[in-house]
Amino acid sequence: MRRRNAPIPIRSGRTEFLKINAARREWRDSYHWVLSLTWPQFYLFLIATYLLINAVFALFYVARGDAIAGVEPGSLPQAFFFSVETLATVGYGHNYPATAYGHIVVTIQIFVGMVWFSVMTGLIFVRFSRPTARIVFSRAILIGNHDGRLSVMFRVANLRHTSMVDAKFHLMFSRDEHVVEGEEIRRFYELKVYPTRMARFPAALTIRHTIDETSPLFGQSRETLEECDAFFLAEVISVETLMAAPVESQQDYAVEDIRWGERFVDIYEEVDGGKLQVDYGRIHDTEPIPGV
């Protein structure tokens, strides 16, 4: 029988997929793997590779007891610290290669050190310079009346203190459906939202989708959405002005995140001089819709 590989976990929002019988990561994916690490994991990776390189070369140095002058034969700690000094090209002068073997190992380590420092410098620069979207989504998605029509609503806010530009807003709706052949499949619908695009996105917005006869949500209720295991996926794609680079952010909503018959509280207030004050502390706050 064909051997089954260990599952590969992949997380998408709050859903975790386990890929089986899929190709494992190749060495060419190492760059992508390193960039996908969290900052604590990345720091641990830096420390581990640094210690590993020095430990390996320390073993080479102790393999020949007379390779390095001033290092006691067989002393791994002294060989390790000599390796650290060599990797950093410090060269205090107390220890130095004493044989041809020692010179060869030192030459190889200096070359490896230059490559390692160059690669790590590039990775650190990429991680620090990579643009990110500091977008917060409302914790809940609402279904209630707006301007006399049933609507789906969620709120997004720009946490940066500079305006995002060319912001585009999307809302995907997904549910299980039965097809003619009798099987159950997952279907995805792109919902028409308003606004779909904003030239500038400085603060916070409420994004809405009107549930009319053309909407896949038309005629749906709390019970029917639970039965078909429905969920929503909200997305914001915009351009970060300081780096002039596109960024995106997503938030998924399950059925239990839907609040019926509610609306978001007003967070804008006009103050002196025509300025608009935005209360970010109430981004997630909702209230019942009057008359519902």
* Tally of helical segments: 5
The assigned CATH architecture of the largest domain is Sandwich
Could you tell me the radius of gyration in angstroms? 29 Å
Mean pLDDT: 87
Beta strands, count: 18
* Class computed from helices, strands and strand pairing: alpha+beta
The shape, in one word, is elongated
Summed up, the domain count is 2
**Percent of sequence in beta strands:** 35-45%
Salient structural properties:
alpha+beta, Helix Hairpins, 5 helices, 27% helix, Immunoglobulin-like, five-stranded mixed sheet, 2 domains, five-stranded antiparallel sheet, single chain, 292 residues, elongated
Could you please describe the fold and organization of this structure?
By secondary structure, the protein is α+β, with helices and mostly antiparallel strands. The protein has two domains: 8-129, Helix Hairpins, CATH 1.10.287.70; 135-288, Immunoglobulin-like. 27% of the residues lie in helices and 35% in strands. It has helices spanning 30-35, 39-63, 76-87, 100-129, 222-227, and strands at residues 8-12, 15-19, 68-69, 96-97, 135-137, 141-146, 149-158, 164-178, 184-191, 197-201, 204-210, 231-240, 245-254, 258-260, 262-264, 268-270, 276-278, 286-288. Strands 5, 6, 7, 11 and 14 form a five-stranded mixed sheet that branches. Strands 8, 9, 10, 12 and 13 form a five-stranded antiparallel sheet that branches. It has a two-stranded antiparallel sheet with strand order 1-2. The radius of gyration is 29 Å and the shape is elongated. The model has no long low-confidence stretch (mean pLDDT 87).
